[in-house]
Amino acid sequence: FNCFLENIIETIDEDVNSRTVELLLRSGIQDGGEWNMFCNIVKKYGLVPKYVMPETFSSSESDSMNNILDLKATKCAHELREMKHSGKSMNEIYKAKHEMVKEAYSILCMFLGEPPKKFDFEYKDKDKKFKCDYNMTPKDFYDKYVGVNLDDYAVIINCPTEDKPFNKIYNIKYMQNM
To answer: What's the number of domains the chain is made of?
Structure first.
C-alpha cells in the first residue's frame, strides 16, 4: 500500500491517462510482491513464529481483503492527485499519505489481526529441554533465530529480448521496495 502510494506521488504530475499511471492504477494492490519488498519488510519489522500469529480465514482466502484494499488504494490515489492539482504542498500530500497508510494498516488488522509487538518464544533445545525467550520483538526473533543476511540473495530471471543483452543488471521501474 505504501509502495503503491509512493508510486502515485512519484507520477503525480503525469496525466492520469498516461501508460504509467494507468498501469499503476490497473495493477493496484495484490497478494505477493517482489523478493526485495519481502526482504525490506523482514529487515525492518522482523518475523514471528507461526503460532504467534496463526493463519486467519483472510490470510488464506484473501480476495475480499484485497478487493477492499484495492478500492481504498484507488480512492487514495485519486485524493492525492486531487490534492496536487488543487495546489496543496508536497508536505501536505505526504501527511495525507501517512494517514492513508495508517488506515490501510487498520484494515489489514481487521482482516489478519494486529501483529504482535512482543511475544514469548517457547521451544525445546536439541537435548529436549524447555526454553523460553520472554518479551521478544519480531526483529529480535529474526536476528537471534533466523539470522540470514537477506542481502546475500538476489533474484535472477531470464527474460531475453533484443533490447536487453545478457550479463547486465536491470531494474523494473515501480517495482521497488516498500
So the answer is: 1
